[in-house]
Write the structure tokens for this entry.
Amino acid sequence: MGNLKQRLIKPGRDFNYAEGVKVRASAAIFADQIVYVTGSEGPYLKAAPADADDAAKTIGRLMIAKHDIPVDGYGIVLPWKLVTSLDTSTPNVGDPVFLADTISAAVGGNLTFTAPTDAKSIIVGRVTIKATVANGGAIMVHADAPEARVQGGSYSATNTAAAGCAMEQLRVVTAASSANIDLTLDYPIVVTDVHAISAGSATDNVEVIKGTGSDAICTAFAFGGGDLDVTRAVEISRTHCVVPAGTAIRVRKSGVGNAGDVIIVTFIRG
């Protein structure tokens, strides 16, 4: 290898074989599945399909399988790969690709365009070509460096359900008018709090709605009536606080208020 010049090594296109890792499969792996490291045996790492619904199967370095690997067999996994095996006729270029919370025994069997609802939300790639025919598109999967590893989901113990997630917020600065402001996210959320910061003396109500109808996420509440006053919703709907991916959150004021009033919606990913 001493005589091999770096400039003679051609760059990768759809994948970079020089960055590949030879592994032994501790469970059957299909091509284009995201895998995680389960351990090691001799000089080889052991790998199995990753699962967003199981925290133990998402830890550490994630990679993507170059080809099918039978259980106890050896094969190559890669840090990134241009995947052309999935149908991208529904999503658009730039849409996220998630690690799925179910594993199917198929090529790319743990990649999905829909954010998991009861699991970690891990973005492992983006659509690069929208298909015009089935399986005619492309996805850039960079399993080794996912864009997001946001904890979601719930787990139960002794009849108690608990959800552990990172908090996120939508901060909306409003005009004086009562115009609807519709916000749409590409992943599901659960709203946990709504509060407002007044920019003047007007005390019109804050309204936050699931969708564009009348499903109130919280009871309407008034701005404080003084500059920089903070007020908060006293009731959150257990039903309407759960907002699916692609469903709008409508934020509005009940009447003409202060320009610069701020409404803040706090949520966790669903």
Notes: Confidence is low (pLDDT under 50) at residues 152-160. The chain has no helices and 23 strands. The CA atoms of residues 157 and 163 lie 12 Å apart. The domain at 167-269 is CATH 2.60.120.220 (Jelly Rolls).
